[in-house]
Structure formats: structure tokens, C-alpha cells
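re: ur question from earlier - yeah i can do the single chain one, its not a big deal. heres the input i used so u can compare w yours
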Amino acid sequence: QMQLVESGGGLVQPGGSLRLSCAASGSVFSIYAMGWYRQAPGKQRELVATITRSGITDYADSVKGRFTMSRDNAKNTVYLQMNSLKPEDTAVYYCNVPPVTKKTTWGQGTQVTVSS
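and the output i got, formated as C-alpha cells:
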């Protein structure tokens, strides 16, 4: 089973940028599609972006044009470049292998707070 460790979150002002990283270990990373998810306080976890093993990306409408997901299979890492951040982007961000279920195991996530 793959272990996932997210990092790169922090406090940023509206309009700012952050780059999240997700390092994977324990499995053959390159064969998997990957996804970034987020969970805001009091809300359900939602899918933000996905990337296929060949690098094709897809995004939620709420982040399209602002977020860019990428992967480096040599480093077993996926990234989420977040630009033009808004207060509504505030959440804990997680990576995982889609699709997820109620039995999916999650890492600790990384907190992103967008506030002035």
C-alpha cells in the first residue's frame, strides 16, 4: 500500500500562491492516477484535481484556471500549484489515488489558509 505525505501549506493572503507537494512511497507510483482533495471546516471532502499516469489533468470548476497539478514520477511526487488564491480555498489539502471510498486511508494533509 502506498504511503502519502502532503506538505507545502501555509497562510497566504488573497491573490497569493502556494505550491503543495505529495510524496509517495511503498508502491509503484507511476502506474497510478493521482488526485488532490480538500476539506474545509464543516464541509465534505471534495476532489480538486486529478492527473493520469501519463499526465493528463482535470480540475474542479472552482479551481480551473487557477490551480495546476503536475507529477514527477522519478521523484514519486505530485504537485499542486495554486495561484490567485481565495478565502474559499481555505481547507486541509490531501492527495490520494482516485477513486476514494469511505474505507480510503488518508494522510495528515496540509493546511492552506487564505486570509488577509
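Strands lie at 3-7, 10-12, 18-25, 34-39, 46-51, 57-59, 67-72, 77-82, 91-96, 110-114. not sure if urs matches, ping me
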